[in-house]
Amino acid sequence: MNILISIIIAIATLGILGLIFGSLLGYSSIRFKVKEDPIVEELDAMLPQTQCGQCGYPGCKPYAKAIADGDDINKCPPGGEAVMLQLADRMGIEPKQLEGEEKPKLIAFIREDECIGCTKCIQACPVDAILGATRQMHTVITDECTGCELCVAPCPTDCIDMLPIQITQQNWQWNLQTIPTKTIPTESNDES
């Protein structure tokens, strides 16, 4: 009987402590919430999400924060001129010459017969688009690859090629930034 009472007391004590600590955590999450700048979220959504670091920042979100803080908008080669124009429009500033060269969209391709399975490309890929295991053949999940080229340099056998994506009906996207907009005059139907 004494053991049963001890177990009930222990469970009740743990339950009460759980409620107290849970309430403290809930209050802390509301009281000390870090508020994001909404413009950073908008700018991040405009960037291509390659997380390639070609802009000098470790990913798209840190670059978006830097743009919001006044950094140049012309440092994203994967996004190209279209993204730079969107950023300039959103920030209300004049577009500049794009740093680096604008490249066609690329994806990584691993020549599997030359792959030694070192996993260095897997470790370098910021979006986990490479599939494989130690001392096993690796391959690229083409739908996930952002073309950042970060997997190329660490490969000791130089078996990774960056290939341009062939435009098909499935992956073609209309670039709304380059479409000139026209206002169509409407005819008024004044019947007097």
TrEMBL record:
<keyword id="KW-0812">Transmembrane</keyword>
<dbReference type="InterPro" id="IPR016463">
    <property type="entry name" value="RnfB/RsxB_Proteobac"/>
</dbReference>
<feature type="binding site">
    <location>
        <position position="145"/>
    </location>
    <ligand>
        <name>[4Fe-4S] cluster 3</name>
    </ligand>
</feature>
<protein>
    <recommendedName>
        <fullName>Ion-translocating oxidoreductase complex subunit B</fullName>
        <ecNumber>7.-.-.-</ecNumber>
    </recommendedName>
</protein>
<keyword id="KW-0004">4Fe-4S</keyword>
<keyword id="KW-1133">Transmembrane helix</keyword>
<dbReference type="InterPro" id="IPR017900">
    <property type="entry name" value="4Fe4S_Fe_S_CS"/>
</dbReference>
<dbReference type="InterPro" id="IPR050294">
    <property type="entry name" value="RnfB_subfamily"/>
</dbReference>
<keyword id="KW-0408">Iron</keyword>
<dbReference type="InterPro" id="IPR010207">
    <property type="entry name" value="Elect_transpt_cplx_RnfB/RsxB"/>
</dbReference>
<dbReference type="InterPro" id="IPR017896">
    <property type="entry name" value="4Fe4S_Fe-S-bd"/>
</dbReference>
<dbReference type="InterPro" id="IPR007202">
    <property type="entry name" value="4Fe-4S_dom"/>
</dbReference>
<dbReference type="Pfam" id="PF14697">
    <property type="entry name" value="Fer4_21"/>
</dbReference>
<feature type="binding site">
    <location>
        <position position="155"/>
    </location>
    <ligand>
        <name>[4Fe-4S] cluster 2</name>
    </ligand>
</feature>
<keyword id="KW-1003">Cell membrane</keyword>
<feature type="binding site">
    <location>
        <position position="55"/>
    </location>
    <ligand>
        <name>[4Fe-4S] cluster 1</name>
    </ligand>
</feature>
<comment type="similarity">
    <text>Belongs to the 4Fe4S bacterial-type ferredoxin family. RnfB subfamily.</text>
</comment>
<keyword id="KW-1278">Translocase</keyword>
<keyword id="KW-0411">Iron-sulfur</keyword>
<feature type="region of interest" description="Hydrophobic">
    <location>
        <begin position="1"/>
        <end position="29"/>
    </location>
</feature>
<feature type="binding site">
    <location>
        <position position="115"/>
    </location>
    <ligand>
        <name>[4Fe-4S] cluster 2</name>
    </ligand>
</feature>
<keyword id="KW-0249">Electron transport</keyword>
<feature type="binding site">
    <location>
        <position position="118"/>
    </location>
    <ligand>
        <name>[4Fe-4S] cluster 2</name>
    </ligand>
</feature>
<keyword id="KW-0472">Membrane</keyword>
<comment type="function">
    <text>Part of a membrane-bound complex that couples electron transfer with translocation of ions across the membrane.</text>
</comment>
<keyword id="KW-0479">Metal-binding</keyword>
<keyword id="KW-0677">Repeat</keyword>
<dbReference type="Pfam" id="PF04060">
    <property type="entry name" value="FeS"/>
</dbReference>
<feature type="binding site">
    <location>
        <position position="148"/>
    </location>
    <ligand>
        <name>[4Fe-4S] cluster 3</name>
    </ligand>
</feature>
<feature type="binding site">
    <location>
        <position position="52"/>
    </location>
    <ligand>
        <name>[4Fe-4S] cluster 1</name>
    </ligand>
</feature>
<feature type="binding site">
    <location>
        <position position="151"/>
    </location>
    <ligand>
        <name>[4Fe-4S] cluster 3</name>
    </ligand>
</feature>
<feature type="transmembrane region" description="Helical">
    <location>
        <begin position="6"/>
        <end position="27"/>
    </location>
</feature>
<feature type="domain" description="4Fe-4S ferredoxin-type">
    <location>
        <begin position="136"/>
        <end position="165"/>
    </location>
</feature>
<feature type="domain" description="4Fe-4S ferredoxin-type">
    <location>
        <begin position="106"/>
        <end position="135"/>
    </location>
</feature>
<feature type="domain" description="4Fe-4S">
    <location>
        <begin position="35"/>
        <end position="93"/>
    </location>
</feature>
<comment type="subunit">
    <text>The complex is composed of six subunits: RnfA, RnfB, RnfC, RnfD, RnfE and RnfG.</text>
</comment>
<feature type="binding site">
    <location>
        <position position="125"/>
    </location>
    <ligand>
        <name>[4Fe-4S] cluster 3</name>
    </ligand>
</feature>
<feature type="binding site">
    <location>
        <position position="60"/>
    </location>
    <ligand>
        <name>[4Fe-4S] cluster 1</name>
    </ligand>
</feature>
<keyword id="KW-0997">Cell inner membrane</keyword>
<keyword id="KW-0813">Transport</keyword>
<feature type="binding site">
    <location>
        <position position="121"/>
    </location>
    <ligand>
        <name>[4Fe-4S] cluster 2</name>
    </ligand>
</feature>
<feature type="binding site">
    <location>
        <position position="76"/>
    </location>
    <ligand>
        <name>[4Fe-4S] cluster 1</name>
    </ligand>
</feature>
